[in-house]
Every structure is written in C-alpha cells, then in structure tokens.
Amino acid sequence: MALYLISVLERDTTLCFLLFQVIKLPPRKERNLVVAVRNVPHVPGHTISDTIDHFFQTNHPNNYLCHQAVYNANKYAKLVRRRERLQNWLDYNQLKFERHPEKRPTKKTGFLGLWGGRVDSIEYYKQQIKQLDKQMTLERQKIVKDPKSILPVAFVSFNSRWGAAVCAQTEQSKNPTLWLTYWAPEPRDVYWRNLAIPFVSLSIRKLIISLSVFALVFFYMIPIAFVQSLANLEGLERVAPFLRPVIEL
Q1: Class level of CATH domain 33-71+152-191
Q2: pTM over the 0.70 mark
C-alpha cells in the first residue's frame, strides 16, 4: 500500500512539473502558412517579384501576406561549398601545426598536390579563402542587382490556413502551365538546384523517368519469370530435356 501511494505521489508530482513547464512557455505565434508557386509568367517591364506581388494582391487580397522570390544562386552555392572545403583543410593544417609546432605543414600547388612548387599550407589556404571571399562578394552583388537572377519561383505566405489551402489546391490561371501552386515543403527538403530547371524541361524529365522505371520493371519481369519456371524439376526438364538423365539420378 505504501509503495502504491509513493508511486501515485511521484506520478502526480511529475505531471504537475510538466504542466508548469508548459504554462511557462511564451504563447505561440500563429505560423504563416506558405505555398510554393512555380512557372510565374514574365511580364514586360516588370520583375518577377513585382509580378508575383501584384498577382496575389489582386487575386488573394484578404489572405496574402508576403512572398519571397527565389534567386538563381547555383554558382554562388558552388563557391560556398568550395570555401567550406578550403576552410576544412585550413583547420586541419592548423591543428596539425598545433600538435607539431616544430614543423609547419607544406603542400604542393599542382594537381592533387602531386607536383608544383611547395608552399606553406596554412598561408596557402588563408590566401585561397581570402580570394574566394572576394569572388563570393562580387557574385552576391551580381545576383541581387541582376533581375534575370530571379527565378519564376516563389514562396508565398498567407495569414490564414483557409487562404493558403485555397491557393494551394486550386488553379490560379486559365493556362494550366502557369502559376502552379502546391504546399511548400520544409526548407531542408527543397533541392534548391532544381528550382532553376524550366517547367517544360522538368516535365520532360519526369516523363523520361516514368518511362525508364516502367521499362526497368517490365523487362526485369522476363528473366524473373524464366528463372521461376526453373524452380522445380518438371519445369527444368521441360526447358532443358538434355538434363533428364541428371534429374532422374
């Protein structure tokens, strides 16, 4: 009886503590619901961002909140990945030098470090990162200033779930290939490089992939069916009569 009372008291204490922690949390703000929009048409004299803003203010005036246009930053992303690799090599050589301060690490500047002049690794990677930072700054400015860098893709935020659902689940244009909307995935689930692929090219790729999968499954069934027919001795004897003496042993 005493153990039962102790367990009940311990359970109630834990529940009260958890409830208190929940009460202390700040009130949740209503999360903006986001819809992805693709294949935005180009309007002469207007940027893609202006076209998107005007379209949703006209067609969804009560629910439209804001939008974020997508920029074609694939080249910039390559520079970022290259800088990360250089930074990793710099950190590695600095750590190596800290463990063995009597000798500074060196490397050859040729292809894969197989040939070329030998230089100080730490200073080499610092210089490479410095030059790359300048390239990244110029590329970032180019992306922001060039209207052609804006892709016909955007993430549109709404102030209500109903407004976002209406936009995501209905056609926005008489032309079924324009203003394509769907629920926006999580940012980490977006393969950003593919957003720069035109709609027609993307549709062709989907068709090719579908046909390839069908062909793979269809032609894969032929050898499977043949092997399955050999799974018993009767089928093997029917397919290969010359093996009958071996089978009858």
Answers
A1: alpha beta
A2: no
